[in-house]
Structure of MerR family transcriptional regulator:
Amino acid sequence: MAHYISIREFSTLHGVEVALIHEFAEFGLVQTHFQQNLECLIADDIAHVRRLIRLYQDLGINKEGIDIILSMREQILSLREELESLRYKAQRLEQERHQRLTDFPSVQGLIIDLDE
C-alpha cells in the first residue's frame, strides 16, 4: 500500500511554493494523486521531488533542462546495469573456458595423423 504526503505539507517542510510542485506536475516531471480530497505525492517519490527542487532552485536549471537531465540519468543507470550484466557474463564465460582447459589433459607436442 502506497503512503502519501500532501503537497501542502511537503511544500511547508521543504520551504517551497505549492505552485512549484504544480509546475513540475504540469510539465510531467512528477505525478500527483488525490487522497481524501488532498493533492498528494507518493512518499516513494519524495527523493525524486527533492532532486527536482535542487536542480531548479540551487542550480537554476529550467524544467526543460531538468527533463533532459533526468532522461540522461535514466540512460546512464540503464547502461550501468547493462555493463554489469555483460561483465558478469564475460566473467562466467572466462571461468567456463578456464574450467574446460583444466579438465582436458595437455596435448602439447602430440601430433595425430588422422589419415592413417
Q: What stands out?
A: The mean pLDDT is 89. The first helix runs from residue 7 to 14. The helical segments are 7-14, 18-27, 46-58, 63-103. The radius of gyration is 27 Å.
